[in-house]
Amino acid sequence: MLVYGDARRQADPRDAIARLKDSLDAARYLAPGLTRHAALVGALIGAGELVQGVADAAFRETGVDAPDGATARLTGLLVRLAGSVWASWRSGFAAADIPDRHAIALACAGLAPDPLEIRLPEGFAFYAVYPEAYAWAASASGLGAGTTVIGLRSIGTTLGAMVTAGIGATDLVTVRPTGHPFRRVLCLSETLRDRLGPRRDFAVADEGPGLSGSSFGAVLGVLDERGVPAERVALFPSHGGEPGHAADEATRRRYGQARRHIRTFDDLVLRAERPEHRLETWLAPLVGPLTAPLEEISGGAWRAHHQDDRAAWPPANPMQERRKVLARTASGTWLAKFVGLGAEGERKVARGRALHRAGFTPEVAGFCHGFLVERWIEGATPLDRTQPDPLRLAERVGDYLGFRATAFACGPGRGASVEEMWEMARHNAAQALGDPAVRAIDGWRTAVPGFATRVRPVETDNRLHLWEWLVLPDGTILKTDAVDHHAAHDLVGCQDIAWDVAGAAIELGLEGAAGRHLRAVIAHRTGRDLDPGLVAWLEIAYAAFQLGAATMAGDSADAAERPRLMAEAARYRRHLAARLRVASPA
């Protein structure tokens, strides 16, 4: 099934350098503390993205990873910034050696003005991968300063810099694994290959391993070919698990032989020895001191607050869920949810504030180093446990979607194109329903170019499921989990607001008269009528995407979660078949 995407953006290196200078200037004038530390981490992530973009540009030009002066100078700046972040963390946020504008200018001298392709470092944006944890793991690893650190682009660029800082090394190289996601390979220049000799120690840093572990596997394979003994290779992954079900035997064997050094978010923050490093300490300035221990509600645990009867729980995909905890204070109960480090998180918090001001979402208390803090609504009833009037629901959802369409418009390139959505729908429908579905989707092919000229991308909600809405005692309907599903680890991204209209039809049953009223409310809000043909097509694409997502989640779920996800996949299969007018398997 086609579900996942690789978020990329085009960036002018001059703009990226200016933002880096400005962010470090801002950090320099902040008082010691978490806010300054978080600003340093944001600058580190920005610098890592710049190094990644420059290195990938050189890779596309030559077809190999090779040492070059421009990338080496930038990498040196990144390692220095990593050292600043690590010193800040170790000192309880008191120390800060912040490079000045002259140091940045020297590191960036000679960069071509050509646009760079920046890939979103997903662990920093979605999965609570904190760079400080890698420096901590490295400092406890016993590795010497002569170790060569290999960072796997994209996110491994920054993680590798933190490992380098943690062991006091200077030799960081980054490489780009390429090819099929389950069969990554490296393309290295002879000069770089010669540096990977059997008499050196190596540390390899990346997020993961994922379903195949093939990015780690690609590096391990090259080191094996170069005669590097397994005992001279140390891995720095983000978790203690093994490569997933798609890993080949060679990757499993090599990954199992190498030493692994891991510090997780839980180790770093939730179980921190120092008070300055604990999440409850970060939250106190926003919501007051805690009156009870933090309650973890990640991985579907939030459903215990939603429904006592486990048999009635909605499905969840724990591997894709954001980290979240409940914090109880004298001012009430608050939800702290990971939304991203640095600028990525700040954008989402700004979006949350705007949605609350407009009356659609809970109150936002603030942002602390990756976590959005918003009020947990006590005494509300999830929408899936009520029977709202369809026209009243359509009015509220229409107001909400109309607001998003006007407040969060965005340019192209932040989501799948209409062509890519068509390819996804065709592929997933073929997997689930066979040739009749393919023929039905092929019938839409001639309409795709016309749709492409009429879409207006916005930061869509992309998560309109029944259990994502709350009904307050006075009847007010609030949307939850509304800030970041258009910027998730999937291929959908930002779409025309018609995508959310399609989602409302399938998730909330807003069809027929209710669907017409929904579209009328949005048209009144936006001044633009929705194209009924586009909506009809996106209902097909939406069902195909959600079918793929539920199927893949079910394939990797545990025994308790799998039946819920498989039932969800069957629901989307029925929706897809009905809209394509083909038979649905039992």
Please provide a written account of the structure:
- This protein has 586 residues and is an alpha/beta fold.
- It folds into 3 domains: 8-266, Rossmann fold, CATH 3.40.50; 278-300 and 312-375, Phosphorylase Kinase, domain 1; 381-580, Aminoglycoside 3'-phosphotransferase, Chain: A, domain 2, CATH 3.90.1200.
- 48% of the residues lie in helices and 10% in strands.
- It has 22 helices and 15 strands.
- It has helices at residues 13-28, 34-62, 69-90, 101-108, 122-125, 131-139, 156-167, 190-195, 214-225, 249-257, 265-270, 279-287, 303-306, 342-357, 390-407, 418-433, 435-442, 448-454, 498-508, 512-526, 532-556, 562-580; strands at 8-11, 116-119, 148-152, 172-175, 202-205, 233-236, 259-260, 295-296, 324-329, 332-338, 364-368, 371-375, 381-382, 469-471, 477-479.
- The protein has a 5-stranded parallel sheet with strand order 4-3-5-6-7, with helices on both faces. It has a 5-stranded antiparallel sheet with strand order 8-9-10-12-11.
- Strand 11 and strand 12 form a beta hairpin.
- The two termini are 19 Å apart.
- The model has no long low-confidence stretch (mean pLDDT 95).
| Name of the CATH first level of the largest domain | Alpha Beta
Give a quick account of the main beta sheet: strands, pairing sense, barrel closure: 5 strands, parallel
State Rg: 24 Å
Task: Give the distance, in angstroms, between the N- and C-terminal Cα atoms.
Answer: 19 Å
Please report the number of helical segments: 22
CATH topology descriptor of the largest domain:
Rossmann fold
Shape: globular
Structural class: alpha/beta
Q: What share of the residues does DSSP label as strand, in percent? A: 5-15%
Average pLDDT confidence is: 95
The CATH level-2 architecture of the largest domain is identified as 3-Layer(aba) Sandwich
- Widest sheet: strand ordering: 4-3-5-6-7
Number of domains: 3
Helix content: 40-55%
